[in-house]
Amino acid sequence: MLDLTFWAPVMAGGVLAGGSSGLLSVYIVGMRIPFLGVCVAHAALAGAVFGSLAGLEGSMLLIPALGGAAVTALSLGLADPRKLNMDANVIMGLLFSITMGLAFVGIGLFPVLGRSDNDVRSLLWGSLLYCRWSDVWLMLGASLALGLFVLAFGKEMRAILFSRADAQAAGIRATGVWTGFLILTAVLMTVNFQTVGGLMIYSLITNPAAAAFQLVKGNGRAIVLAIFFGAVSGLGGFLLSAVTDLPSGAVIVLLSALLVGVSAMFRVLLRRP
Amino acid sequence: MSDAAVQLDDLIVRAGRRTILSVDSLRLERGELVGLLGPNGAGKTTLLRCLLGLQWRVQGRVEVLGRPVGDLGSGGLAGLRRRIGYVPQILPARSEMPLTVREVVAIGRTGIAGLLRPLKGSDWRFVDEWIERLGLTSLAGQGFGEISGGEQRKTLIARAMVQHPELLLLDEPTANLDLGWRERIVRVIAELHRSLRLTVVLVCHELEVLPTCCGRVVVLDAGRVVADGRPDEVLSTERIGSLYGPGLAVVAASGRWAVVPGESAHA
User: Fold this and answer.
1) Residues 228 to 267 of A: which have CB under 8 A from any B CB?
2) What is the pLDDT of residues A200-229, one digit of tens each?
3) Which of A10, B35, B164, B212 fits a disulfide with B217 by CB distance 3.0 to 4.6 angstroms?
4) Among 1.20.1050.10, 2.30.33.40, 3.40.50.720, 1.10.3470.10, what is the CATH number of A4-268?
5) How confident is the model at residue B265 (pLDDT cuts 50, 70, 90)?
């Protein structure tokens, strides 16, 4: 029998990480940029590496990690695909290669300086099972910030989702809003990486929206359903793993993928005469 | 400051070493419906982008609705663009996000409403009015990606119109549409111009798209204005032949224009 009191922060973390990633997934899938998660992860790693080389330790490494992720997001937001003659995913690939290269150059300096890189390696590869209440509050803060942003700029985000170029032509401050969204996304993802790990986040920034888009039309309904699917995956995956004694991250990922498949089947069945 | 809708002077746009647009002087008066014709690559879309301040490496003076586009900061440009309704040539790639037709039309009110302000009931009423006016009521709740090309074009026209624009820029609004849809779109454009006395710039490379109320045609070729005047002055068989090749004849009937194979055309 599961000790709910003991596992409460883990379950809360699962719901928060899943729900907030579900919200992100609406925009990441909508804009067709699923590679953003990998790009942000390595930018955060690069930040943490150089923070560690500069002498920071333990949980303080989150600050340069957030800095690295935010700077990369800022670069991505300000980069104009038309002016650069590059697709947004290609720009992300370029940023990923730069940040990954920097990260591993930095990691390579640790043995040269006679120092350990354990702090850095463990920073961004957390596990839901070790989620504490302090992690939950951190995730809650980042999630609320993103949620408030989406509430405040929801109509602008909807226009950008449809066409960033058309939004700009209609006098919408598309670049500023999109850059702000990317920075908050990078912050939230970095916080989630270090609390629940990348395996879970990579899947939950795509699968919930992929499932929701099968079932509903309209921006508002898609957001609500994607958040729900993300939270269900996070919490449900943990509970399933507790019952079956299987790795929690893997079960969460597979549950989120199963939801996509079930939603697609539902859509096909509903449309049959 | 000019009171014209558009005033261009010594406009030059380059791409690398190539000049893609060069206009010595062009003035469009308020309330005109101007057809902007020319073959592919003539600079028609580039000219529209200059009016919206979306084109880079622009030399010369571009004044739109009394505002000098080149001198505006980002805030000023955004404000000017809200006064301009723009229907792009290329429909957005099918988005993964299933926005409804109503949501897409409402995008036109987003800039007008302003940052940190949600769309109000009055905004949505305006959206619904234009949806009804353009015959999209039955499609309002459907996904934009699920409707036909012609219905998508009408949706984008409605999106432009809910901005309550002073200038409407239409870039090949009938591209890839069948005859039936082409005629419906032409009628919509004509009705909007007649009822609202909008200034309209209609980019096309087919004469058939020009509505009867089109009072002026500007012809671009290789980035230059080669003709500017009334349709009956500009749209001659000789001019069309010089633009598109021999063997074509211009036909006029009931205020509309068409190009047909001429006497010297190959069988």
Assistant:
1) none
2) 888 999 999 999 999 998 999 999 999 999
3) B35
4) 1.10.3470.10
5) very low
